[in-house]
Design goal:
The chain is of the alpha/beta class. Helices cover 38% and strands 17% of the residues. The chain has one domain: Rossmann fold (3-Layer(aba) Sandwich).
Length: 196
């Protein structure tokens, strides 16, 4: 039997201990103190997932939530040496050019690529129809949980979150915007979750 070369890149990832991320790009995230509060909340729920046994974390190597989650995990590896960060790049050609053209930080991309424990690079180019959707689907299909940072509305992040819910993944959806007038503690931030 011939194994699918794309699926084979995910071999060895323990599905029951794997968690993927989805979330907005930098321009859709709050700024200043609100972003600080959001990142503390993301840190809190990543730590919670590690405490209940998740060890493999799949990130889509995009700027914004993917970068912030990766950065948190790179620091947490010092405290939790069992965790592994797996980068899933959506295409093998022109990704840097796409990143730059969108105004995203090439430095963030470099940091993620250099620090992941494993890099999975899918075939294609950024402008091919469905390239990012394929990456998101594969991450969901190889995980048993998802942490999503997204608000209501049409977005790739919400599409990925809904796909994960169809697969009955454990989930933690963090709403990116704090309540009006204050920055709550992570345990008071508005989230929806089940199993995490």
């Amino acid at each position: 039997m011939i194994q699918d070369p794309i699926q084979s890149q995910f071999s060895g990832i323990p599905w029951e201990k794997a968690l993927c991320f989805t979330g907005h790009r930098p321009e859709k995230l709050p700024q200043g103190k609100a972003l600080d509060g959001l990142l503390r909340t993301l840190h809190y729920y990543i730590c919670q997932s590690i405490e209940i046994g998740y060890t493999h974390f799949l990130t889509g190597l995009a700027d914004g939530v993917d970068y912030y989650a990766s950065d948190i995990l790179f620091w947490l590896r010092r405290q939790y040496p069992q965790i592994r960060v797996i980068g899933v790049q959506p295409c093998d050609r022109q990704y840097e050019a796409f990143f730059s053209r969108c105004g995203y930080s090439l430095e963030h991309l470099r940091i993620m690529r250099e620090n992941v424990d494993r890099l999975i690079v899918l075939p294609g180019v950024p402008w091919e129809r469905g390239v990012f959707h394929r990456r998101n689907r594969l991450m969901v299909e190889h995980s048993s949980a998802i942490i999503a940072v997204c608000r209501d509305g049409r977005s790739g992040s919400m599409q990925t979150y809904h796909y994960a819910r169809q697969f009955n993944l454990n989930f933690c959806r963090i709403y990116p915007d704090p309540p009006p007038g204050r920055i709550p503690e992570p345990t008071e931030w508005y989230v929806e979750r089940s199993g995490l």
